[in-house]
Design goal:
The chain is an alpha+beta fold and about 150 residues long. The longest helix has about 30 residues, at about 120-150. It is globular and about 45 Å long. It has helices at about 15-25, 30, 120-150; strands at about 5-10, 40-45, 55-60, 65-75, 80-90, 95-105, 105-115. Strand 4 and strand 5 form a beta hairpin. It starts with a strand and ends with a helix.
């Protein structure tokens, strides 16, 4: 199984606490996902984030392909970072670290995602043309939405 890495960073002129309050609230994920993803929270987002929390979503990563996505929050260190993993969903493996680094001007939000694609050799062949660009679209959309909310 080939494991890919994706990294993203964003600077925002807000406090670490403000960034934490927004990013650690699972309900806010819906606000920063592309509308084309048809992202819906099914359950588990009605509490403050904690290690062991299970959150279920429905997503449409590609037109006509609706699937469930179940994640577990595995680590939480307020207000510095949290980690989620996929228990069930569109990836073969998903491990996502969210960091909030304070700076003199606000924060740097850093994401590091390790993931593996489904469907064996076919998934590997589709990765550079469909899967990776879709992941990049999700994070580009997130940057745009966070800039609208906080800049």
């Amino acid at each position: 199984m080939k494991i890919y890495e994706f990294k993203a960073k964003q600077e925002l002129p807000i406090s670490q606490e403000e960034a934490w309050e927004f990013l650690s609230n699972p309900k806010n994920l819906q606000k920063i996902m592309p509308s084309s993803m048809g992202f819906q929270i099914v359950s588990g987002a009605n509490q403050t984030m904690y290690a062991g929390q299970i959150i279920q979503y429905k997503v449409t990563p590609l037109p006509g392909f609706k699937t469930k996505w179940v994640t577990e929050i595995t680590q939480v260190k307020k207000p510095f970072y949290f980690v989620d993993i996929q228990l069930d969903g569109p990836y073969k493996l998903w491990h996502h670290k969210h960091f909030i680094h304070p700076t003199d001007q606000g924060v740097i939000i850093e994401d590091i995602v390790h993931y593996a694609v489904p469907f064996g050799w076919l998934g590997s062949a589709l990765h550079p043309f469909i899967i990776r660009p879709k992941l990049e679209e999700i994070f580009t959309n997130r940057v745009e939405k966070m800039n609208q909310l906080f800049k």
